[in-house]
């Protein structure tokens, strides 16, 4: 299961199973979301060992407090990132106090906490990116090819038309239709783009 499967019904059903104590479903939940949470914690700590410890603590808290999950307040990944950030800040404070007690620079840790993007922004960006990539793969080859060249390759409509030996109007239509299909798919999934 992927962290991008935050579809309202699928994510909610999974969380409901976890709230009932379904350990097997929680294992799938962990497999799907752990890489994203771990990446967040690695950025926060810049120390793999600390990040691994915080990852385990985050999921332990998620398991124990699954009943507190509220789908109206965000997706499962947003909830997990919020838990990870909260636990991470607590841990950074502990490390800061230890550093003060033992002597040494603390500015680096403080700066890391202050410069972290918001939990909601990170989770939404991760979720939206995954949905967009999945939906692009579902587009007809002509639309996918033109959109990929335009948005990921940085080519102009004229350059795409020349490379594909296709009329400029056709390229513009393919891209416009592709964007429209992406917007519809993203809206159906309930993801803000």
Describe the structure in your own words:
The chain is mostly helical and 193 residues long. It folds into two domains: 8-116, Rna Polymerase Sigma Factor, Chain: A, CATH 1.10.1740.10; 139-189, Orthogonal Bundle (Arc Repressor Mutant, subunit A). It is 77% helix and 0% strand. The chain is built from nine helices and no strands. The longest helix is centred in the middle third of the chain and has 27 residues, at 76-102. The model is unreliable at 1-9 (pLDDT under 50).
Instruction: Give the number of DSSP strands.
Output: 0
Structural class: mainly alpha
Anisotropy-based shape: elongated
CATH class of the largest domain: Mainly Alpha
Which stretches are low in confidence, meaning pLDDT under 50 for 5 or more residues running?
1-9
The CATH superfamily of the largest domain appears as RNA polymerase sigma factor, region 2, helix turn helix motif
Report Rg: 21 Å
Secondary-structure element series = HHHHHHHHH
- Compute the separation of the termini in Å: 22 Å
What is the fold-level CATH name, i.e. the topology of the largest domain?
Rna Polymerase Sigma Factor, Chain: A
DSSP helix fraction: over 70%
Helical segment tally? 9
**Overall pLDDT score:** 79
The domain tally reads: 2
- Profile the largest sheet: none
CATH architecture of the largest domain: Orthogonal Bundle
Percentage of residues in strands: under 5%
